[in-house]
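haha ok so turns out i had the wrong file open the whole time. this is the CORRECT one, sorry everyone. sequence first:
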Amino acid sequence: MSSGDRKHASGGAVTVSRMRAMKREGQPLVCLTAYDYGFAAACERAGVDLLLIGDSLGMVVQGHETTLPVTVDDIVYHTCCVARACQRALVVADLPFMSHTDVEQGLHNAGRLMKEGGAQMVKLEGGAEQAALVERLAVNGIPVCGHLGLKPQQVHKLGGYRVQGREQADAERMEADARALEAAGADLLILECVPTPLARQLSEQLSIPVVGIGAGGGCDGQILVLHDVLGVTEQPPRFARAFGAETGSVQAALAAYVEAVRAGTFPGSEHGFEA
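then structure:
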């Protein structure tokens, strides 16, 4: 039985409709990145709702300075590894840098992530300029997660890893982008390094779930890079919390993270940014 068949048979799999229901019911979505079978299985045991095979693997797995060198083949391979472990968590795969520069290219590569990798949703960076691609993916039955705020694939354009949306014009542009993605058919949105008030406002305005990373506690869910949670990142971002250093084991760290997000004790005010 394939991983997808096992998820269907389990009856408790996290789906797009279930995530929407969780938002309506005020149940926080607990999300993490994952890149291989073993850690994905540990996340499953801990009860993580969504696992993202992020292009962050370029930095935390491959040792690059940015996410830019990651290829579609890299994401397909790591998605295969993660998907084999998942019976409940929703498997989301990143479209890496320069893999969706036009609609046809994006549709082709998203199809690869689904068909070859076993992903159940694809994630892409960008706002209204990606609406045509999001609409095309949705029409073809491919669930989409948008990504606004700090967009690591544009790190050189942005001038570094900086908080986004502090200026009024930038905040208004982000709101317009979020609405455009939702209208085009996006099912989920990640906000990265966004001021807490703005992230809360967008979470309240949108009907789709909004997951934050460095976006404060007002979102519908939280995501962190696995290595930051485990405490093995040499210089972790200020919005992360090293649960591994507090608990002493991988499984305990993952369980503590899940519990903290669900209880609303993470992120704290010290993990967010003001406008």
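DSSP finds 13 helices and eight strands in the chain.
again sry for the mixup
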